[in-house]
Amino acid sequence: MTQLPTDIIPNRTDPQNTATNGPAVLNEQNLEVFHGEENLTRVRSEAPRDYDLVILSSFGGPEGQEDVIPFLRNVTAGRGIPDERLEEVATHYRANGGVSPINEQNRALLAALQTALVEKGPDVPITWANRNWEPYVKDVVQEAYDKGARKILVLATSAYPGYSSCRQYREDYGIALEELGLEGKLQIDKVRQYFDAPGFIAPFEDGLIEGLQDVRARLEQAERKAAGNGKIRIMFCTHSIPTSAANEAGPRGVDYEGGSAYVEKHLQAARAVLAGVEKKHPELLKDVEWELVYQSRSGPPSMPWLEPDVNDALEALEGTVDGVVLVPLGFVSDHMEVKWDLDTEALDTCEKLGFVATRTPTPGTHPEYVEMLRQLIGQRVASSAPSQNPAELDELRTSACGTPGWFDACNPDCCVSARAKAQKPTIATYTGADKAEGARS
User: Fold this and answer.
1) Residue 145, SS3?
2) Angle at the Cα of 380 (from 377 to 385), degrees rounded to 5?
3) Up-side HSE of residue 299: CA atoms within 13 Å toward CB?
4) What is the pLDDT of residues 399-436, one digit of tens each?
């Protein structure tokens, strides 16, 4: 596993440690306190299987103006939110013709993966399913079973641990199996979260290098500068979630930096991106600081969500920097929350404050990202896996973050909400004995 340089830590690049709920200043000594789930000593890889089908599984989005409200009803099902309030969010989609870009992004990724699997293997078909819009998970699972599939591998378009980004996908398929009466008849597993995979980090490295070069070039030509000091702030942006949900991310009994697997893994990914940039173009990080910021919060104002909000963080920089680079680290494609919350709202805030700013790309169909996903599939398929032994597969993993990586099958308590009245059925749940060394609750 790659070991990160010791100087790529927040006490240099994020002096106020704004990205976590941890100590006011982080240094190498108290960083060691946060051991993440690395203290869980069980094998993380599952034995490969002969899968009949891979399903690229995503969030879904409307395909036209008439789809917007029905789609938002699906997203908020069970919360009792009236259509009038949904219409407030619908304006983001209506401004773009009622079409979410996530669907076209997923079609492009599906096509790229189909080509990669044909050219390099493994020889397994791949299709597409959504949580909140057509093609729905339940329908795709039923069709696959009717066509003879008995072992399915799910690849979610989400890189980080957390309820919405991992466990809910596991519930989507667990519920589908239960409702279709296919429990015990159809095996469904899931590809692990891949926040640390080199092929996920590489597109952000490339984008940040180009973004910093662009901002520096434009600053050289600018007649007026916001602060006149040449400083640039990198903002790694991800979706905000309720702090209660953040604190529940990951398995229990683990001390995470920022109090959450969701926060910690974003910080680790950000440092990996910075390490890559520093290795290739160290001059670009001169007079540069960074922070992890959040976007797209919803829900009542009384409910605490992860902060700082990207626009609040930008406002706090007024008069202190000349340039800003927004890196959508929490997103794998340019869906609506990237196009609206960053490309529209955040860049408008930058313009108002006089910052020279740019937003870097998401992985999309970046060749290294597609190849990484192909390899993750290949590691789970018996005919192409580099080993049939889970312990050996653990040793063969590569990580840009210097970590063992996430679990092929998650602990039963992983990302469980304390507010849930009852646990929903899930796939990819670990059923063996678990051992934690030095864990604290």
Assistant:
1) helix
2) 100
3) 14
4) 998 888 999 999 998 999 877 778 899 999 998 865 54
CA distance 398 to 8: 20
Neighbours of 286 (CB within 10 A): 11
Domains of the chain: 10-40+196-359 (3.40.50.1400), 53-194+366-396 (3.40.50.1400)
Residue with tokens 């949900």: 245
CA separation for the pair 291, 184 (Å, rounded): 46
Q: 3-state DSSP call for residue 429?
A: strand
Q: State both tokens at 249.
A: 């991310």
Annotated binding site: 100, 169, 239, 337
Residues of the binding site for Fe(2+) = 239, 337
Confidence class for position 304, pLDDT limits 50, 70, 90: confident
Average pLDDT, the chain: 89
Predicted confidence (pLDDT) at residue 35 exceeds the cutoff of 70: no
| Interatomic CA distance for residues 240 and 167, integer angstroms | 17
Cα 285 to the center of its chain, rounded Å: 24
| Residue 439: predicted pLDDT | 36
CA distance 118 to 138: 26
Annotated binding-site residues for Fe-coproporphyrin III read 100, 169
pLDDT of residue 438: 36
Say how many C-beta atoms besides its own lie within 10 A of residue 35's C-beta. Answer: 17
Percentage of the residues of the chain whose pLDDT score is greater than 70: 90
Bridge partners of 239, per DSSP, are 295
Rounded to an integer, what distance in angstroms lies between the CA atom of residue 187 and that of residue 439?
32
- Across the range 245-259, mean pLDDT stands at 82
Q: How many residues does the chain have?
A: 441
Q: What is the pLDDT of residues 82-131, one digit of tens each?
A: 998 889 889 988 988 999 999 999 999 999 999 999 999 999 999 999 99
CB 292 within 8 A of CB 173: no
Nearest in space to 47 (alpha carbons), one of 387, 420, 437, 401: 387
Share of the chain above pLDDT 90, in %: 68
* pTM, to two decimals: 0.91
Give DSSP secondary structure letters for 227-268.
SSS--EEEEEEEE--BHHHHHH-S-SS---GGGSHHHHHHHH
Q: What is the mean pLDDT of residues 184-189?
A: 98
- Structure-token pair, residue 270: 């950000």
Residue 292: closest CA among 306, 275, 276? 306
Task: Strand 151-156: give its sheet, edge to edge.
Answer: 126-130, 53-58, 151-156, 187-190
